């Protein structure tokens, strides 16, 4: 008899979901965690970043109160208070993810590093744990780019950023993906100088281009310096000697630009935490992107092993490093690993993603470029600008847009939203795409007035407007009006 029905490596969003479900269904579960329970999302990812952004938004709103006719003094940033809010948010959520809570559920929580010792054995805390099924949920860590001089300067990642006891005077951020952009705006609003350096031709490279332009304008308007399409030649200390030695960094771009800052944040992507797992001992195949799995998240090379969350590299899809993707993985795992339902397949067609800047940028399904690259020819592009939305005008936030990408038959392929709180509007689009509902389902929905969500309904309505107002419809109405 194996020691455990299920052994899970990693107690982040993915591993915790799997452990809770398996134990809830009566299986014996070992949950192995070498760091902090809750993993990246709780401790160094989603929660602290969103808490910092919330503090930053409050500061920005205080500064912008003049547009409502209010006279407020400029906000004073109490960094210790901001940190207390961030740490308080983590502390408030932490009990949900705690070892005590999981032990209470009957899970054996082992607080140590784990690694495979055989195809059906994991070693942790000096114990050999045999298992029926193992789930690898070890997550990802920040990529440290290979840049000349980087080993001679201090740098931050998301793992250290939220521990700063003083605000950075001038934060230089390398990488303009979700982490880079969110942290750029948060720190700029909290009174820091911020410079963002992105290697790709534009920030948020994978996002809907049409909506990235106004987002970029919003970031520039807040004083963030952007260098896009930048090639970094080398990095050095600002002051190698003297009283301030080691206090700052200088970035030299290939075009000769020199950027001096007090702190350097690396936000250049993620790499799977494969090191230390000893995957070869269990014949578990991996790529540089993560553990190779089939679409049901089962390892391609060891039938006892599954992978979920940031570390999973499902074939044909690749990793999606998002907390709600980890939840989706756990749901797939229940069907494939526990109920053994044949044909269970992970599908990202309706997976949302949100960059929590202000305004927020939300994407559900395909961008226009992705839809075209996927071979969709006869696309209908539908837009509704927030400048035409009563609520956005009343709120004084008319920037942004809803853009829908649909087939000529009215099936939604993707929705891109740029609006304050756009993430809160994402749900219905996922439903439409996931359930393959026609756009009329959104166009005919009665939404409360005035809401930003109406912009999406208006965009969907634009699909039917030409048909509704066609000469044919007008002739039908003319005929019908003569009926008693
Ligand atoms: C700054 C930032 C902000 C983010 N914001 C968002 C957001 O707003 N929304 C969103 O959806 N996603 C966001 N993400 C992504 C999100 O944090 C991740 O997708 C999510 O945390 C992945 O969960 P996971 O369980 O796969 O991995 P992790 O949370 O990394 O958990 C893996 C765990 O495994 C442990 N582990 C690793 N190796 C071993 C071993 N050998 N033995 C024992 N334990 C081990 C680690 O210590 C870790 O606790 C953000 C990420 C960052 C960096
Ligand atoms: N709101 C959210 O949901 C949220 C927030 C933060 C992070 N995340 C997740 O965390 C993951 C990591 O985010 P991230 O922003 O670090 O990664 P990312 O891959 O999204 O972006 C990294 C960026 O760095 C750039 N880059 C890479 N090397 C560079 C270099 N040497 N110089 C300059 N630019 C360089 C890339 O072109 C890219 O734009 C993402 O997969 C994301 O899904 C999600």
TrEMBL record:
Keywords: Disulfide bond, FAD, Flavoprotein, Membrane, NAD, NADP, Nucleotide-binding, Oxidoreductase, Redox-active center, Transmembrane, Transmembrane helix. InterPro entries: FAD/NAD-bd_sf, FAD/NAD-binding_dom, FAD/NAD-linked_Rdtase_dimer_sf, Pyr_nuc-diS_OxRdtase, Pyr_nucl-diS_OxRdtase_dimer, Pyr_OxRdtase_I_AS. The chain crosses the membrane at residues 6-32. Its cofactor is FAD. Residues 352-459 form the Pyridine nucleotide-disulphide oxidoreductase dimerisation domain. It holds the Pfam family Pyr_redox_2. NAD(+) binds at residues 175-182, 198, 269. GO terms for molecular function: flavin adenine dinucleotide binding; NAD(P)H dehydrogenase (quinone) activity; oxidoreductase activity, acting on a sulfur group of donors, NAD(P) as acceptor. It comes from the Bacteria. Residues 4-328 form the FAD/NAD(P)-binding domain. Disulfide bonds join 41-46. FAD binds at residues 50, 114, 310. Binds 1 FAD per subunit. PANTHER family: MERCURIC REDUCTASE (PTHR43014:SF2). Belongs to the class-I pyridine nucleotide-disulfide oxidoreductase family. This is Dihydrolipoamide dehydrogenase.
């Amino acid at each position: 008899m194996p020691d455990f029905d299920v052994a899970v490596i990693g107690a982040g969003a993915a591993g915790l979901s799997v452990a809770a479900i398996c134990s809830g269904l009566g299986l014996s579960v070992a949950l192995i965690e070498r760091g902090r329970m809750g993993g990246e999302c709780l401790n160094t990812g989603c929660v602290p970043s969103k808490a910092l952004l919330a503090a930053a938004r409050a500061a920005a709103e205080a500064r912008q109160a003049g547009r409502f006719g209010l006279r407020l003094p400029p906000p004073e940033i109490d960094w210790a208070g901001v940190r207390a809010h961030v740490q308080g948010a983590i502390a408030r959520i932490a009990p949900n993810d705690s070892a005590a809570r999981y032990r209470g559920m009957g899970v054996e929580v082992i607080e140590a590093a784990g690694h495979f010792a055989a195809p059906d054995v994991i070693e942790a805390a000096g114990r050999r744990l045999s298992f029926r099924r193992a789930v690898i949920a070890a997550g990802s860590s920040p990529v440290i780019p290979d840049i000349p001089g980087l080993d001679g300067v201090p740098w931050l990642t998301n793992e250290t950023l939220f521990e700063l006891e003083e605000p950075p005077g001038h934060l230089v951020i390398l990488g303009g993906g979700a982490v880079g952009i969110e942290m750029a705006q948060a720190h700029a609003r909290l009174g820091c100088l911020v410079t963002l350096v992105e290697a790709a031709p534009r920030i948020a490279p994978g996002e809907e281009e049409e909506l990235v332009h106004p987002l970029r304008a919003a970031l520039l308007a807040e004083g963030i310096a952007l260098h896009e399409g930048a090639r970094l030649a080398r990095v050095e200390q600002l002051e190698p000697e003297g009283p301030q030695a080691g206090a700052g960094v200088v970035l030299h771009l290939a075009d000769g630009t020199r950027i001096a800052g007090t702190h350097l944040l690396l936000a250049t992507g993620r790499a799977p935490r494969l090191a230390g797992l000893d995957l070869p001992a269990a014949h578990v195949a991996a790529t540089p992107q993560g553990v190779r799995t089939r679409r049901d998240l089962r390892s391609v090379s060891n039938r006892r092993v599954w992978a979920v969350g940031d570390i999973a590299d499902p074939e044909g899809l690749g990793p999606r490093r998002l907390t709600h993707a980890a939840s989706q993985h756990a749901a797939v795992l229940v069907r494939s690993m526990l109920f053994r339902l044949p044909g269970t397949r992970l599908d990202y067609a309706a997976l949302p993603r949100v960059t929590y800047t202000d305004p927020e940028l939300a994407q559900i399904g395909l961008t226009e470029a992705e839809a075209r690259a996927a071979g969709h020819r006869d696309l209908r592009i539908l837009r509704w600008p927030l400048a035409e939305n009563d609520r956005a005008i009343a709120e004084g936030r008319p920037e942004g847009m809803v853009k829908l990408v649909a087939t000529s038959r009215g099936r939604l392929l993707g929705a891109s939203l740029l609006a304050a709180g756009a993430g809160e509007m994402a749900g219905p689009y996922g439903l439409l795409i996931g359930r393959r509902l026609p756009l009329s389902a959104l166009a005919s929905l009665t939404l409360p007035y005035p809401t930003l969500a109406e912009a999406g309904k208006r965009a969907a309505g634009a699909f039917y407007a030409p048909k509704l107002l066609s000469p044919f419809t007008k002739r039908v109405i003319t005929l019908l009006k003569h009926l008693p």
